[in-house]
Amino acid sequence: MLAHLDPLILARMQFGFTVAFHIVFPSFSIGLASYLAVLEGLWLATGRQVYMDLFRYWLKIFAIAFAMGVVSGLVMSYQFGTNWSVFSDKTGPVLGPMMAYEVLSAFFLEAGFLGVMLFGMTKVGPRLHFAATLMVALGTFFSAFWILSVNSWMQTPAGYGTNPQGQFVPLDWWAVVFNPSFPFRLVHMVLAAYLTTSLVVGAVGAWHLLRDRTNPAARTMFSMAMWMAALVAPAQILAGDAHGLNTLEHQPAKVMAMEGHYQSHPDGAPLVLFGLPDQEAGTVRYAVEIPKLSSLVLKHALDAPLAGLDSLPRKDWPPVPIVFWSFRVMVGLGMLMLLLGCLSLLARFKGRLYAWAPLHRFAVAMGPAGFVAVLAGWITTEVGRQPYTVYGLLRTADSASPLAGPAVAASLTAFVVIYFSVFAMGTLYILRLMAKPPEAGEPGLQPGAPIRTAGITPAPAVDPDRHLQPAE
């Protein structure tokens, strides 16, 4: 049945499917790597065993999530050559080096220190091990830096020229890397990763508090997660507002789709809360709206004029219903995250942070919210860029490889089957690890015994307490 669909639609479905699977793992591992660095740093500074117990508990989960993120991301590079060869040819001189920089800096940094982080505590000592953990956390940030720079250039291209072959070529690398939307997108995504991780950690902590309120590790992880949610949720709302204003400046059609503004409003635009966008009719049916509030949010004036999609050729309209609803899912979940942070502050003020069961149930329910919000934000960003792959310069219809429908349908079907089977098992294993409560003296990852080769006997394990005797 898929073979009869348009190859362009199938190629977009395949890339969207693989990216949707991939993005949830980096959005978790970026925040979790930093959380592990904080836990190990607190253990070194205070000597409290609970921080090391939590470090070992979450290190196992990080190892699996990191591995699934790497594996799920590998196939996307191949799709550039198979399904999107025209795009690769046109943008390769600009985007190719930046993707190579991501491998040479971020991935090599992560890979170089990951083994020490996972298995090296008894080999190199606590302080050098902490340095390795910091390098892994730094590597995840660099990876986000380069990937988001690539994506931001596709949204707001800058610093480029074209050669006689019609390729985009770099003229100013500084302008290419730090293109107009990149700083806003980087802050928004990194905060999203931290918020996603805090919600997962908070949900796991709340789950175990509902079963045993006296578990010190569960209490500690829940408290740390709620501090992060209370601080990062409002910061993310401010960052999202700044990102939206930048998008209005550089990608107005995307904002029109997000707001559901098919018509222009010369005397102030309403904020459409809900409705049913009708792409054919060019209107939002059954709209529930607040007069002039959109102009106040976007232009900081009630009567400020806002252009609608009727000011653009219909062929340049993004798919409004998808963008309209994905944006509302993201914003709605953001409001719930803010509510969770505020309730945690109230519970902390009343001394009931570890005893208020409704808060714990709410935190458990919000555990997956970060992933859903990240996916909704990604859909808003990428679908809102349509009908372009490079905004305003290269159309999606002109970017695909000349493939027949059955060829793309076959690879898409294979991806769906393999991804759901492999990553479902990995996710279930992570959930099993999370369901087990952290213990006092939590065991760490256990590497296999090293093999003796070339007559060299492995050195005896190093006791970390020989290097550090933390005070209780």
Automatic annotation (TrEMBL):
Gene Ontology terms for molecular function: electron transfer activity; heme binding; metal ion binding; oxidoreductase activity, acting on diphenols and related substances as donors, oxygen as acceptor
Statement: the UniProt record of this protein carries the keyword Oxidoreductase: no
UniProt keyword annotation of Iron-sulfur present: no
Cellular compartment(s): Cell inner membrane; Cell membrane
GO CC list: cytochrome complex; plasma membrane
Biological process according to GO: aerobic electron transport chain
Alphabetized Pfam families for the sequence: Cyt_bd_oxida_I (PF01654)
InterPro entries per UniProt: Cyt-d_ubiquinol_oxidase_su_1
Mode of membrane association: Multi-pass membrane protein
Disordered as annotated region, ranges: 442-472
Keywords: Cell membrane, Electron transport, Heme, Iron, Membrane, Metal-binding, Transmembrane, Transmembrane helix, Transport
Basic and acidic residues biased stretches: 463-472
Top-level lineage group: Bacteria
Chain segments annotated as transmembrane: 20-45, 57-78, 98-121, 128-148, 186-210, 222-239, 322-347, 359-379, 408-431
Family: Belongs to the cytochrome ubiquinol oxidase subunit 1 family.
Protein name from the UniProt record: Cytochrome bd-I ubiquinol oxidase subunit 1 apoprotein
Organism phylogeny: Bacteria, Pseudomonadati, Pseudomonadota, Alphaproteobacteria, Hyphomicrobiales
